[in-house]
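Saturday, quiet lab. Running sequence design on the structure tokens for the scaffold JK sent over.
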């Protein structure tokens, strides 16, 4: 925000004194002085909403108590001397009239002097405050809450603004660039009685503020940066307090706390599937202390209601936990008791992904008797029907449910666990993907900067909705292994391609196009539905949710999809699910006034008001009648038969009188505001009626809120019905996205076989071809373990990734980038590629490689696809060849489809028996100087790795390359000699 000279000077001097009555600044001064709601007449009287002015500290419109109004920073505090001064007024002129030049020069010089002192000051040079200063009422409330929640940034509601105090204000200033008024930041500088301790350099708390309507903006910013944010809200309304509780400060309470894994925000703001965080799992972790520890996890997504649990034994490198971290991608982890090595892994993951790691201790009763505690939890929520499903879970899973529910209680989200139909186990009938597979194949993030662009998900995500994108992420992380399920999904994709991306016109085409049109502008219904369950939707959002559901349901009323069930069971089932609950939605919407709902109007929200609202409206009409009677008195007294109440800047019931007539008015008339031509007044009797009117309005709003909460609770009883519709929409969105990708030229429907291996014609890398032009295709046939050789940078790793991605695409029901594809049903893709260490766990690159290789050896089956890149390269040549030989031999005997990349001599890698069970392929290169990569796969083994060519491309000095070339020739002759001796020895043994 650009700081003006006037705003900057106001930091050092008091505001100007008030001018004569006719000056329009009177109202502003009166308001700042007395805390009233008076305003000068704005240029645009239709916009009384407070403006987010970071420099205007003292402009809060909180019409509460005097103690509350004292929370504004003292403008007369000298930032250099640190104590109150007696500065002269900055100006003594009317708006638009310049002051004399001599005065102006003096002010500029004084400002420059003070500014120079501020720039050059040293904190240690500030004088120590010896005068006792006590925090005001609002600051004392913040102080008491802050002592109990030191890890939480507190936003304190004061009227129409939120205030931030102490070190919270400093953090908010640093992270969000909010304006900061310097002051006390440490709680230790404040005594238990709220008195500033002697020796403090300030007498006021550090301070910042922003308007109420910006609360979501600043909360989201801080939460996404890993902070815990709390909202301290006013529990009273000023109009009611003035009548019911005049004495004492405004009651404020900490109502909500938010973290990265518990912040929902607003679902209506997100209607685009691009640029959205697709996962917001809060993961609770526990690890037993046995010799072979068992890891238990509970991942909850508060925005969708998904609850995923698992319990498993892990190895030394925590490979099982790593794959769950990569696929679930939690944004917050609760440490409920894990080992130091597991904690280090979590810290590394959270640091890289800018997540939050928190400690959460398990209570003794939660661990010793989880069944009893679970029963108490459901009983306390008034829902014992679904308790039995939770009681059947493993003991530690139930304990983590109880621990996580305590953590979610502060956010009022613990009712999530009542939705037991959302509970699933992580492991199921899906393809197994190792952690290295997810990373090396770049399923969700590239390996360069870990962003989504350049990943498989980035290529496939053509979804129209946010909740569709989240569902697609699940599909990519869990490829199917059931042939029937794969063919059904693939059939639905094929139906969409034929119906939409061709000239064919049918009833199916019409239905698909209808749903696509409805989904394009739709908000995040999944998140809105969960906020409905939590009781967080306001009137406008509740109406929008029901309206969007109705738009879809009306297009697919019961019976409309019956003809599609035989044509395509998947699409037919989706269309049928969309229209089943149209009647329930229509009944709920019949109770709502659409215009009032769109304006979030509490008073006219219902078409037919409940009796409680009717009674309160009668009371309000009675007061309004009294106000009209008082108006008749004013008309007679002022002899103005057409006189009407005026409203200015949100202040109603004002009597407007021309300035020339004000001298005739009684003394008890109070001026509220004015302009150069008119003044606005209220009488004591009118003031009393206005307060009575405000009291009735607030009472009416309170009753309206109660009735709306009842209505919203009735809507929430339909959660399961509405969720089935949203799930159906998300599934269609995913199918439509896959159809858009599959319908491209050069993509083909795969044929699934039990034998025959992988056969791809004109195969291409699904990700790389999107990032570059003129990608070179390959014909690939893999029927047994295959050794891949070739020059460095020749495309070996890219080729094997290309094969694995094609297999994975086929198993999620998508076409494959090739002209022909024959793919066997595969139960796992296990990958060991790339080179990385794990310094935090004390593991070298070679150790990490062998641990990942050991995991593959344990989990591979005859139906696995195994990718191994240069096994054994991290040690001596003899040890490396020995390890590579043994590993390759294991997979040859297992019969798994294996792609084994190596630079080792094949004579040392394969014995005569194994060589007949393996295929040899290499990446071709021209026999020129310098050689040219063709990126074509050819049968047989490579004759050279062309490492010196890579050295030349990398810019190694030519002298060094020439020396290396000479030494390479000598070593090659030595190797050939030893190979000849070995072969001669074998021939003699046979003879």
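Result came back. Writing it out in full:
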């Amino acid at each position: 925000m650009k700081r003006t000279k006037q705003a900057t000077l106001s930091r050092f001097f008091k505001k100007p004194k008030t001018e004569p009555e006719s000056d329009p600044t009177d109202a502003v001064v009166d308001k700042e002085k007395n805390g009233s709601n008076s305003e000068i007449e704005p240029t645009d009287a239709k916009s009384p909403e407070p403006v987010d002015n970071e420099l205007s500290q003292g402009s809060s419109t909180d019409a509460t108590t005097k103690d509350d109004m004292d929370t504004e920073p003292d403008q007369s505090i000298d930032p250099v001397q640190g104590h109150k001064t007696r500065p002269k007024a900055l100006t003594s002129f009317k708006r638009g009239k310049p002051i004399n030049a001599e005065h102006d020069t003096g002010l500029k010089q004084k400002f420059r002097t003070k500014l120079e002192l501020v720039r050059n000051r040293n904190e240690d040079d500030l004088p120590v405050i010896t005068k006792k200063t006590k925090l005001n009422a609002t600051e004392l409330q913040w102080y008491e809450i802050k002592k109990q929640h030191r890890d939480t940034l507190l936003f304190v509601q004061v009227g129409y603004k939120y205030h931030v105090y102490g070190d919270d204000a400093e953090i908010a200033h640093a992270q969000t660039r909010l304006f900061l008024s310097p002051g006390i930041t440490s709680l230790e500088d404040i005594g238990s009685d709220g008195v500033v301790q002697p020796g403090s350099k300030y007498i006021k708390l550090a301070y910042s503020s922003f308007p109420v309507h910006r609360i979501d903006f600043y909360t989201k910013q801080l939460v996404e940066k890993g902070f815990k944010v709390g909202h301290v809200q006013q529990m009273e309304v000023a109009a009611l307090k003035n009548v019911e509780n005049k004495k004492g400060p405004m009651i404020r309470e900490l109502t909500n706390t938010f973290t990265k894994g518990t912040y929902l925000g607003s679902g209506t703001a997100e209607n685009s599937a691009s640029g959205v965080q697709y996962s917001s799992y809060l993961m609770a972790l526990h690890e037993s202390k046995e010799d072979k520890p068992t890891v238990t996890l509970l991942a909850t997504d508060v925005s969708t209601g998904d609850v995923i649990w698992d319990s498993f034994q892990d190895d030394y490198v925590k490979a099982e936990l790593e794959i769950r971290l990569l696929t679930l991608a939690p944004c917050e982890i609760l440490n409920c008791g894990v080992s130091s090595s597991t904690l280090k892994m979590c810290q590394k993951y959270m640091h890289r992904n800018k997540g939050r790691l928190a400690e959460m201790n398990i209570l003794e009763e939660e661990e010793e008797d989880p069944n009893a505690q679970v029963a108490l939890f459901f009983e306390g929520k008034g829902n014992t029907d679904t308790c039995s499903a939770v009681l059947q879970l493993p003991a530690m899973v139930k304990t983590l449910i109880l621990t996580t529910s305590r953590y979610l209680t502060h956010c009022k989200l613990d009712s999530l666990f009542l939705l037991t139909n959302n509970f699933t186990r992580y492991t199921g009938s899906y393809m197994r993907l190792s952690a290295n597979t997810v990373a090396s194949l770049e399923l969700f993030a590239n390996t360069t900067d870990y962003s989504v662009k350049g990943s498989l998900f980035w290529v496939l995500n053509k979804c129209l909705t946010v909740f569709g994108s989240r569902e697609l992420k699940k599909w990519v992380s869990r490829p199917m292994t059931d042939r029937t399920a794969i063919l059904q999904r693939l059939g639905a994709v094929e139906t969409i391609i034929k119906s939409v991306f061709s000239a064919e016109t049918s009833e199916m085409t019409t239905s698909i196009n209808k749903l696509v049109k409805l989904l394009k502008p739709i908000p995040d219904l999944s998140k809105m539905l969960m906020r409905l369950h939590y009781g967080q939707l306001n009137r406008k959002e509740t109406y929008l949710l029901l309206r969007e559901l109705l738009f879809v349901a009306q297009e697919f009323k019961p019976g409309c999809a019956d003809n599609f069930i035989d044509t395509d069971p998947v699409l037919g089932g989706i269309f049928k699910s969309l229209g089943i609950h149209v009647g329930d939605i229509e009944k709920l919407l019949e109770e709502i006034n659409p215009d009032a709902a769109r304006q979030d109007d509490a008073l006219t929200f219902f078409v037919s008001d409940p009796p409680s609202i009717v009674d309160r409206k009668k009371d309000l009409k009675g007061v309004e009648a009294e106000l009209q009677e008082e108006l008749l008195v004013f008309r007679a007294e002022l002899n103005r038969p057409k006189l009407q109440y005026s409203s200015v800047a949100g202040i109603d019931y004002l009597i407007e009188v021309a300035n020339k007539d004000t001298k005739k008015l009684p003394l008890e008339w109070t001026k509220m505001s004015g302009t150069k031509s008119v003044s606005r007044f209220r009488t004591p009797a009118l003031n009393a009626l206005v307060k009575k009117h405000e009291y009735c309005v607030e009472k009416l709003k309170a009753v309206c809120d109660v009735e709306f909460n009842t209505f919203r609770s009735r809507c929430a009883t339909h959660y399961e019905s509405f969720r089935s519709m949203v799930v159906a929409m998300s599934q269609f969105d995913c199918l439509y996205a896959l159809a858009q990708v599959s319908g491209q030229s050069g993509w083909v429907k795969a044929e699934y076989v039990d034998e025959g291996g992988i056969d791809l014609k004109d195969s291409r890398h699904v990700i790389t071809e999107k990032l570059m032009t003129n990608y070179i295709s390959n014909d690939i046939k893999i029927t047994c373990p295959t050794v891949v050789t070739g020059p460095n940078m020749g495309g070996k790793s890219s080729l094997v990734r290309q094969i694995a991605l094609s297999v994975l695409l086929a198993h999620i029901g998508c076409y494959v980038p090739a002209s022909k594809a024959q793919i066997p049903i595969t139960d796992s893709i296990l990958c060991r590629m790339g080179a990385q260490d794990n310094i935090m766990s004390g593991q070298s690159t070679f150790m990490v490689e062998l641990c990942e290789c050991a995991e593959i050896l344990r989990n591979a089956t005859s139906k696995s696809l195994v990718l191994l890149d240069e096994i054994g390269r991290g040690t001596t040549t003899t040890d490396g060849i020995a390890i590579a030989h043994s590993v390759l031999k294991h997979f040859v005997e297992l019969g798994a489809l294996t792609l084994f990349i190596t630079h080792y001599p094949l004579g040392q890698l394969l014995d005569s028996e194994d060589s007949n069970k393996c295929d040899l392929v290499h990446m071709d290169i021209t026999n020129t100087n310098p050689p040219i990569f063709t990126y074509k796969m050819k049968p047989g083994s490579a004759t050279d790795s062309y490492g010196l060519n890579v050295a030349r491309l990398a810019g190694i000095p030519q002298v060094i390359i020439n020396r290396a070339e000479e030494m390479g020739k000598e070593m090659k002759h030595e190797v050939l000699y030893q190979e000849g001796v070995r072969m001669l020895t074998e021939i003699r043994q046979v003879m």
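Notes for JK: Residues 1-100 have pLDDT under 50 and may be disordered. The chain has 36 helices and 28 strands. Ask whether to fix the surface positions before the next round.
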